[in-house]
Specification:
The structure is a single chain. The chain is mainly α. It is 86% helix and 0% strand. The chain contains eight helices and no strands. The chain is elongated, with a radius of gyration of 21 Å. The N and C termini lie far apart (41 Å).
């Protein structure tokens, strides 16, 4: 794509609006959406568990190192739960899904574009947005909030294990401060972040796939741009959402 940034943003929002019109006109296939959610969740789960586990362990190590000089090691659980539930779990889940599912969406649709399969669907009066993009969008918005929950509890479990078995923090103390550090609304906010990240990852990836250049080079370039753009937007949106949710 050789369009400028302003034109690209304009075209992206037109693309998102076109998805909404297509769903309104054609309806949404819930069976395809559930299948997309299952595929996204299953494919992203292994790497998410590994990453979330090691980040949780590292949170314990770094938090303990920071609190130990102050004699406040007992607050480690609060530190882990606040950082994990409010910020790290949503952004980690979003990043993993962008790297896995986002690349897959962009590359699949890009291949269909250069092979003129998308044009063939339009010729046959089949709306590719309703049949190819909308189920992926609904699926990722179902899967990513669930993955946020998985990342949250994996991170806290790994942090607990590191704190108790390696750092000598009492298990009951860790859990008590972890529970005191967060409120139920924090988990709800994490789910909102997951749904927003999912919508952004899907629409950005599909937009790049639909507008990829010609040949394998065009597909590769579109896939790379989709991942980079999705990751940057998720980080920016994470800050903006946190400002709205917790900024006072």
């Amino acid at each position: 794509m050789s369009v400028g940034p302003v034109a690209a943003v304009r075209d992206y929002f037109r693309f998102v609006a076109a998805i909404g019109r297509s769903v309104q006109r054609e309806g949404l296939s819930w069976s395809a959406s559930v299948k997309a959610a299952w595929d996204i969740g299953v494919e992203s789960m292994p790497i998410l568990l590994v990453i979330a586990g090691f980040i949780g362990s590292n949170l314990s190590l770094q938090g303990h190192a920071a609190f130990a000089p102050l004699g406040a090691q007992r607050m480690l659980g609060m530190f882990v739960s606040l950082a994990g539930v409010r910020e790290l779990a949503p952004i980690i889940a979003g990043s993993m899904v962008a790297a896995k599912a986002g690349t897959q969406m962009a590359s699949q649709l890009g291949v269909m574009r250069i092979q003129e399969q998308l044009d063939a669907l339009e010729v046959m009066a089949v709306d590719p947005l309703a049949h190819l993009v909308a189920p992926r969008l609904a699926g990722i918005m179902l899967a990513l909030p669930a993955l946020v929950i998985v990342a949250t509890f994996t991170m806290i479990a790994a942090a607990y294990a590191a704190a108790v078995m390696q750092l000598g923090v009492g298990g009951a103390t860790f859990l008590r401060f972890a529970a005191d550090g967060v409120q139920p609304i924090d988990f709800a906010y994490g789910e909102v972040k997951g749904a927003v990240f999912g919508a952004v990852i899907c629409t950005v990836s599909c937009w790049y796939g639909f507008h990829c250049g010609s040949g394998p080079e065009g597909v590769g370039r579109a896939t790379n741009q989709a991942v980079v753009t999705s990751a940057v937007l998720c980080v920016v949106l994470n800050y903006l959402l946190s400002e709205v949710m917790y900024g006072g």
